[in-house]
Design a protein that fits this description.
By secondary structure, the chain is mainly alpha-helical. Helices cover 78% and strands 0% of the residues. α2 crosses α3, α3 crosses α4 and α5 packs across α7. The radius of gyration is 20 Å and the shape is globular. 13% of the residues are buried. The N terminus is likely disordered.
């Protein structure tokens, strides 16, 4: 008996055979690095494999380019986080800098947190960041975002719950 995910796997396999080389070239033009292009092409197809079902594709290259563009944005975002993290580490006195293992764990956590925050609706993310990063109270946030205090509380609870789920999902020592 076929599972509902098998047709999607077959479509991705065909798409991979037909378009992998094209996609890698498309990414190489944007990255100027064949290794990164190959990695991101694989990430693009892995993203497609994670979907339950692919839409009917009348323009597979347009579809792949759109998915790859999202993967590319995530790549650039990760690089930006890594650069900021490395700059913060470089500014720390060597005696208080975390171990290499802790640095790797912190970077992984930062990237996962960024992805989780990015997945939140914009007002939820804004309310949460204004609360947690800027230290604003509910009334100040409500005033700034032109929403009710009740809505702000709901948004912050929603984002906090996602942080707890993220924390539980990270496989950290």
């Amino acid at each position: 008996m076929l599972s509902s995910s098998q047709p999607a796997l077959c479509n991705v396999a065909v798409l991979y055979r037909q378009q992998h080389s094209w996609l890698t070239g498309w990414l190489r033009q944007r990255l100027s690095c064949s290794h990164s292009a190959a990695d991101l092409a694989q990430d693009t197809f892995m993203r497609l494999l994670a979907k339950e079902q692919l839409p009917a594709l009348h323009a597979p290259r347009t579809f792949l380019a759109k998915v790859a563009q999202s993967v590319l944005c995530n790549h650039y975002r990760r690089q930006k986080i890594e650069r900021a993290y490395l700059e913060a580490l470089a500014a720390m006195p060597e005696l208080v800098a975390p171990s290499l293992e802790t640095q790797a764990i912190l970077l992984e956590t930062l990237i996962a947190l960024d992805a989780m925050l990015e997945s939140l609706e914009r007002p939820v993310r804004q309310a949460f960041l204004l609360s947690q990063v800027d230290g604003l109270g509910h009334a100040e946030i409500a005033d700034r975002l032109k929403l009710s205090v009740t809505t702000i509380k709901r948004y912050i609870i929603k984002a906090s719950a996602r942080c707890i789920v993220l924390d539980d999902s990270l496989d950290l020592p």
